[in-house]
Amino acid sequence: MTALRLGTRGSALALAQANEVARLIGGDVELVKITTAGDVDRARGDKSRWVGALESALLDGSIDLAVHSAKDVPGELAPGTVIAATPRRAEPFDVLVGENALASVREGARVGTSALRRRAQLLAARPDLEVCEIRGNVDTRLAKRAGGEVDVLVLAAAGLDRLGRRGEAGALLHDGVFIPAAGQGVIAIQARAGSPAASEAARADHASTHAALDAERHVVRALEANCHTPVGVLASGGVVRGFVGLPDGSWWLAEEATSAEELADALLRAGAIELLRALAP
Known about the structure:
- By secondary structure, the chain is an alpha/beta fold.
- It has helices at residues 12-25, 37-40, 48-59, 116-125, 138-146, 157-162, 196-201, 207-222, 260-269, 272-279; strands at residues 4-8, 29-33, 65-69, 81-85, 94-97, 110-112, 130-132, 152-156, 169-173, 187-192, 231-236, 239-245, 252-257.
- Strands 2-1-3-10-4 form a five-stranded mixed sheet, sandwiched between helices. Strands 7-6-8-5-9 form a five-stranded mixed sheet, sandwiched between helices. It has a three-stranded antiparallel sheet with strand order 11-12-13.
- The longest helix has 16 residues, at 207-222.
- The radius of gyration is 18 Å and the shape is globular.
- The relative contact order is 0.16.
- Tetrapolymerization of the monopyrrole PBG into the hydroxymethylbilane pre-uroporphyrinogen in several discrete steps.
């Protein structure tokens, strides 16, 4: 029997996610490492740079399935493909590394992140902080903090969990403005629509996680948001929460509703899309 070819980036975190997917699917699975444009040039943030090469390999038949961090997947998939499955969601929230709680971070501390959403939320909550751009994979960012480039990091808790490094983190950021990126903590398995591999992938699906991801992606598409826009969306426990703000923290809004449609409408009425369009590069 031919092995199911599972495409993945080659980072430690991506491989941890791909191995988890392989375990859940079972059977004969081969991991195929693919270098994306985002791996080559981290200074540019377009989400398609992280998934484009994997989508191309999927479409040309080089792989049967592509494994992504769902938060990196653009709102519109490549034509002819679907998110065939999403395993059970890991912790969706961000976490501090280098301090136990945000209130304990000293005034004027250097906080490292490359995400505009995290920058906007940090400065909305603590305008005294110096938010510094810091790039690289999880291990690289942790090494940069250890080397004194920043005092504190903000990272996704799920990534630290999957790498077995959660013990280095402090408190979760989950109150008020701290709403994670859509799909954070979710692994998305992409397939060609109607392919046998899509059916194979379904063995790894967790229905409520998939429904939550669909809701969060609906809001992102309604807001015409992308990785250049400070937007957070989380669907959990029958409630969908959303955040939109300026990168300097000077203006922001947070709403919640019982459906993705209601949340998107509330954010649009509050002027979110005009703000996001103004921020677009």
